[in-house]
Design goal:
This protein is mainly α. The chain has one domain (2-116): Orthogonal Bundle (Arc Repressor Mutant, subunit A). It contains seven helices and three strands; from the N terminus they run ααβααββααα. The protein has helices at residues 2-11, 14-25, 31-38, 42-54, 78-88, 92-105, 109-117, and strands at residues 29-30, 58-63, 66-71. A three-stranded antiparallel beta sheet has the order 1-3-2. A hairpin with a 2-residue loop joins strand 2 and strand 3. Helix 1 packs antiparallel against helix 4 (42-54), helix 2 crosses helix 4 and helix 3 packs across helix 4. It starts with a helix and ends in a 7-residue tail after the last helix. It holds the Pfam family HTH_5. This is Winged helix-turn-helix transcriptional regulator. It comes from Oceaniferula marina. GO terms for molecular function: DNA binding; DNA-binding transcription factor activity. Keywords: DNA-binding, Transcription, Transcription regulation.
């Protein structure tokens, strides 16, 4: 029962739910793309992603300086994700996030990094 509680607690936060929804739409997202979507600090995004990983809802891989996250679907969670997708399809926030994600995905991680941290991060 401990794992189920972690999963439910992870989904009980609006921003983490938004991340799960975004990851369900895209195969993987860079941490900087998730930060841009949520409009929170990198540290806050990192904390949300750690909670999702701990609950078994996200996995990560490092590619150079970038960390990419993808959705993990714990065993037995298919009906939960089906319900989430149905519920979120009528959400105004999700529709707004979908449009924002289109703009974010049109940018490279380097461009996002410069936007978030300035030229020091990724000199042109």
């Amino acid at each position: 029962m401990h794992d189920e509680l972690k999963l439910i607690k992870a989904l009980a936060d609006g921003n983490r739910l938004r991340v799960v929804a975004a990851l369900s739409r895209y195969q993987e997202l860079c941490a900087c793309q998730i930060t841009e979507l949520l409009q929170v600090s990198g540290a806050t995004t990192s904390r949300h992603l750690a909670i999702l990983q701990d609950a078994g809802l996200a996995s990560s891989r490092k590619d150079g300086r970038w960390v990419y996250f993808s959705l993990s679907r714990p065993k037995g969670s298919a009906s939960l994700f089906q319900w989430l997708n149905q519920s979120l399809s009528s959400s105004e926030t999700w529709h707004s996030d979908t449009e924002t994600l289109k703009l974010i995905m049109a940018m490279t991680p380097e461009d996002l990094c410069r936007r978030q941290r300035g030229e020091v991060c990724c000199p042109a």
